[in-house]
Amino acid sequence: MDSKLRQWQLDIERIWQAPAPDWREAARLADVMARTSPEVLLRHAAAQALPILRHAAAETGDPEITEAARRRLGIIREVLHTLTAPRFGRRDIPVKTLTPGERYRQLLGLPLDRRLTATEIHRAYKRVAKTAHPDAGGSAHEFQALSAAREALMKER
């Protein structure tokens, strides 16, 4: 699939560098990416860019539409660059999948290697909840996950 991503990147670059971009070709390419890309980020970027690219293909004279289309094409271009850029220093070491208990411990910032007391779990929960609570700038989803982690670790004890 890397070859397909690189080909799409070359096609987008060609359209991007052109003095008068071919918006019809850009819309066709975004449509293909939105339907067939295995990368979720690329599918979303292409799907969001598709309406304005089609609009720019239909009305080539409006500068506001072409500017918006150019911005959306730039987003697709950045996503493709991120996906195809070499990652130096990364090795293909298999990542150990964590058990739910280990994920809960990580979420609360607790050690993975020893038995925990109820006081340790409660203190860790309070510490993390100060920033995760919606009233403190966190999200409701994050806070609910944190509460679920505390409950699961307390039951596990």
TrEMBL record:
It comes from the Bacteria. PROSITE patterns: DNAJ_2 (PS50076). InterPro entries: DnaJ_domain, J_dom_sf. The lineage of its organism: Bacteria, Pseudomonadati, Pseudomonadota, Alphaproteobacteria, Hyphomicrobiales. This is DnaJ domain-containing protein. It comes from Bradyrhizobium sediminis. Residues 103-157 form the J domain. Gene3D superfamilies: DnaJ domain (1.10.287.110).
